[in-house]
Write a structure and sequence with these properties.
The protein contains 8 helices and 5 strands, in the order H-E-E-H-H-H-E-H-E-H-E-H-H. It is an alpha/beta fold. A 5-stranded mixed β-sheet has the order 2-1-3-4-5. The longest helix is centred in the first third of the chain and has 15 residues, at 3-17. Strand 1 and strand 2 form a beta hairpin.
Amino acid sequence: MDPFLEAAIQEARQGLAEGGIPIGSVLVCEGQIIGRGHNQRVQRGSVIHHAEMNCLENAGRRAASVYRRCTLYTTLSPCPMCSGAILLYKIPRVVIGENVTFRGAEDWLRANGVNLEILNDPTCIELMRAFVAARPELWNEDIGV
C-alpha cells in the first residue's frame, strides 16, 4: 500500500478512536509529509475541521510555491469546502482513498485542472461504511444533510 495513503488511514483511525468521524488526510511535498490531520468536527465542536482542512491547518503557513508542489492524500472524496481550499492553494494533485460512500466535488476539481487519482481502497471504504451504519446522524451532520 502507498505509505502516504496508509498515513491518511492512520489519521482516520485516530479520529474514530477520539469519537470523531474516520476521515484522514496528509499533505506531501517532494516525498515528505508536511501536514497531517483528521476530521475533528466532533472533537473541536467545529464546523470546518474536516480532515483536509485540519491537515492544511496543521501544515502551517506555507508559501504558495510550496502548495503548488504538493499532493494531498485523503481517505474520502473531498467535499466542496475542502475542494475550495485545494483550489485556493492550487494543490495540483489529490489522491482519494475512496469515493464509493461519498462523492465530493470531483468534477469541480477536475474542471479546474486538479489531477485526481481515485483508489477505492477497501480499507477506506470499510471504515466509512461501518461508521455511516453506526452513526448515520453524525455523518449526515458532517455533510450538511
